[in-house]
Amino acid sequence: MGELQFQFISSFFAVAIPLMFIVFMLGKCDSRRILLYFCWGLFSGVLAFNLNIVFGKGQYDRVVLTIAPIIEEIAKAFPVMLFLLTKKRKFTEKLIVLCAMASGFGFSAQESMYYFAASSREVGDLLALLLRSLTTSLMHGMTTAFFGIGLIMTQKLQGVRIPIIFGLLALCTGIHSLFNLLLQTNLAVVAVIMPVVMFFAGWTFLHNYKENGVQPIEEDKSQ
């Protein structure tokens, strides 16, 4: 397969796969804001890549299992925390989760483009990378989406909200690290199944949140 042809095909799949998952969940939402979060995810991929190099110091296993999950989860979730500061506009909880998920999917698109660029140009390699893109897109998208869901659940816990946020980041980092670890063992199939289960859990939340009595986050009129 020619280099130019490979780059064209791989770049398409690297961006199209995460966007496909976003469209599947989107429905009627603030699509402009969601796409802005996707763009942040692209930027956070570049940011995390450089930070991983600085802190990893060439130690691959150390980066994959400890440093990268911490840096990447914080980078993806950073703009989601802005919803904590927003009091003058109305945001549905569904929108918060979708924005969080879009940030994670944007990150995965940038990461996939890096792996495609660093790979060989064989058809078999392309197929393997497509499978990797599918699974990691879901993992990155859903860990950040779960952070958004956790953020929603803390809105009535003002006194302990900050510690819980750190706990949510630790949870997302743990899932990320476990995923990376399982990929290197005989239990790699579990790593492939994990993001799929997470995706349908997120899908269930988004499409049933009204039935569960979840209400939009509104301006605090007492202030």
Tell me briefly what this model is.
This protein has 223 residues and is mainly α. It is 76% helix and 0% strand.
Which radius of gyration do the C-alpha atoms yield?
18 Å
Shape: globular
Q: Report the uncertain regions.
A: 211-223
Cα end-to-end separation: 63 Å
Label the structural class: mainly alpha
* Total discrete domains: 1
Strand content: under 5%
Mean pLDDT: 80
Q: Give the assembly state of these chains.
A: single chain
Write the element-wise H/E pattern from the N-terminal end onward.
HHHHHHH
Describe this structure in words.
- The protein has one domain (3-207).
- Helices cover 76% and strands 0% of the residues.
- The protein has 7 helices and no strands.
- The chain has helices at 3-26, 31-56, 60-77, 93-118, 123-153, 161-183, 188-208.
- The protein starts with a helix and ends in a 15-residue tail after the last helix.
- Mean pLDDT is 80; it is low at 211-223.
